[in-house]
Amino acid sequence: MAADVIDGKAFAAKVRGQVAEHVAALKEAHDLQPGLAVVLVGSDPASEVYVRSKGKMTVEVGMKSVEHRLEADTSEADLLAVIDQLNNDPTIHGILCQLPLPGHLDEDLVINSIDPAKDVDGFHISNVGLLGTGQKAMVPCTPLGCLMMLRDYHGSLSGMDAVVIGRSNIVGKPMANLLLGDSCTVTIAHSRTKDLAEVVGRADIVVAAVGRPEMVPGDWIKEGATVIDVGINRIERDGKKKLVGDVDYDSCAARAGAITPVPGGVGPMTIACLLANTLTAACRANNLPEPKGLTA
Ligand SMILES: NC(=O)C1=CN([C@@H]2O[C@H](COP(=O)(O)OP(=O)(O)OC[C@H]3O[C@@H](n4cnc5c(N)ncnc54)[C@H](OP(=O)(O)O)[C@@H]3O)[C@@H](O)[C@H]2O)C=CC1
Ligand SMILES: Nc1nc(=O)c2c([nH]1)NC[C@@H]1CN(c3ccc(C(=O)N[C@@H](CCC(=O)O)C(=O)O)cc3)C=[N+]21
Predict the structure, then answer these.
(1) Number of compact structural domains in the chain
(2) Residue 191: inside a domain
(3) Are residues 152 and 255 in the same domain?
(4) For residue 198, what is the enclosing H or E element?
(5) Which numbered atom of ligand 2 lies nearest the CA of 141?
(6) Domain containing residue 74
(7) Considering the chain, what percentage of its residues have pLDDT values greater than 90?
(8) What average pLDDT does range 261-284 have in this prediction?
(9) Is residue 134 part of a domain?
């Protein structure tokens, strides 16, 4: 039986619609406009596409959008000065510094210089600690988007066996924490995992965040499992440029109960959750009630 396709693009449009409604209400009742600042150092073409689409969607939901584009050889002091200025700007509620940064910049230092209340990526150590201890945090956008799709499809995730492939700070680890928070039995696999096929084969939920094109074959997947493909890989096949995920879509779709496509799955949800986080940050900064269903 063919898998259900989880339509991240449509779900993301719905989430952005909810964000837009809430933003309009904030303006009406409190004369408050949430603002998002994106900082991009250097000009990686993939980042350019992503930053442009974030800016466009930010404006579409009625928020203020600011972009800071800095030269690839910007000094750490100059970057920290830009972040400091945004930290102190009351019209900015969310700050995202596009990763990866050029090699001469200390990523941990830069991320941890963002005001945790404005850290809409959820990468600041204090947000990581809050999430890890089950307290109210800013939750990383990509894992939050995956969680929203899983909750929408399954209702409760309680007791399900979940396997997350990848242990990065931006996807794998926060994803595992969120699944644990929803009472899944969580396994985190990585490049040193001994028998990945066997580990994946036990899972009711597989989240693939590896960065290797089409690495997970369908015969690893338990019949009826839900497959969330976080991977964004640009490859060339038959002379054509293509975007593929970390799972082999056709063979996985043949075994899975449900699967997210690439493009049109996790990616659009990431941007929708970035906007949701900016709205949440603006509400918290002004002691206003937070939107429901848009946080973990
Ligand atoms: N859709 C979206 O919105 C987003 C998509 N992405 C995409 O998600 C993917 C992962 O991103 P990110 O987490 O930043 O990547 P990282 O490179 O930071 O992490 C990759 C992880 O995969 C593990 N890994 C690598 N090779 C293997 C293997 N052969 N078997 C098992 N595990 C392996 C690594 O293990 P180890 O730790 O041992 O090295 C590591 O933990 C990428 O394709 C990226 O483009 C990322 C962010 C957002
Ligand atoms: N500080 C920081 N935060 C991030 O969240 C962050 C980052 N840095 N660096 C790069 C990665 C990557 N990422 C994507 C988001 C959306 C799509 C997306 O919308 N993808 C579309 C396709 C777009 C296309 O065609 O290229 C889709 O999957 O349908 C992709 C990738 C966020 N990241």
Answers:
(1) 2
(2) yes
(3) yes
(4) helix 196-201
(5) 5
(6) 30-118
(7) 96
(8) 98
(9) no
Q: What is the CATH number of the domain that holds 236?
A: 3.40.50.720
Does 234 sit in the ligand 1 pocket, CB within 6 Å?
Answer: no
Rounded to the nearest angstrom, the distance between the alpha carbon of 176 and the centre of ligand 1 is 14
Query: What spacing in Å lies between the alpha carbon of 168 and ligand 1's midpoint?
Result: 6
pLDDT tens for each residue of 48-69: 888 999 999 999 999 999 999 9
What does the block give as tokens for 154?
Answer: 């399954």
**What is the residue whose two structure tokens read 């991009």?**
40
The reply to whether 135 belongs to the active site is no
Which protein residues touch ligand 2 with a CB less than 6 Å away?
Answer: 49-50, 96-99, 121, 141-142, 232, 243, 262-264, 267-268, 270-271
Q: Are residues 65 and 96 in the same domain?
A: yes
On whether the CB atoms of residues 149 and 142 are closer than 8 A, the answer is no
Structure tokens at 91: 């019209």
Q: Is residue 24 part of a domain?
A: no
Q: Write phi, then psi, for 259 (nearest 5 degrees).
A: -150, 145
pLDDT tens, position by position, 174-213: 999 999 999 999 999 999 999 999 999 999 999 999 999 9
The overall average pLDDT reported for the chain is: 97
Question: What size, in residues, is the chain?
Answer: 296
Tokens 């036990």 identify what position?
202
Cα(69)–Cα(81) distance, rounded to whole angstroms? 14
Residues 194 and 103 in one domain: no
- The pTM assigned to this predicted structure is 0.98
Does residue 243 sit in helix, strand or coil? strand
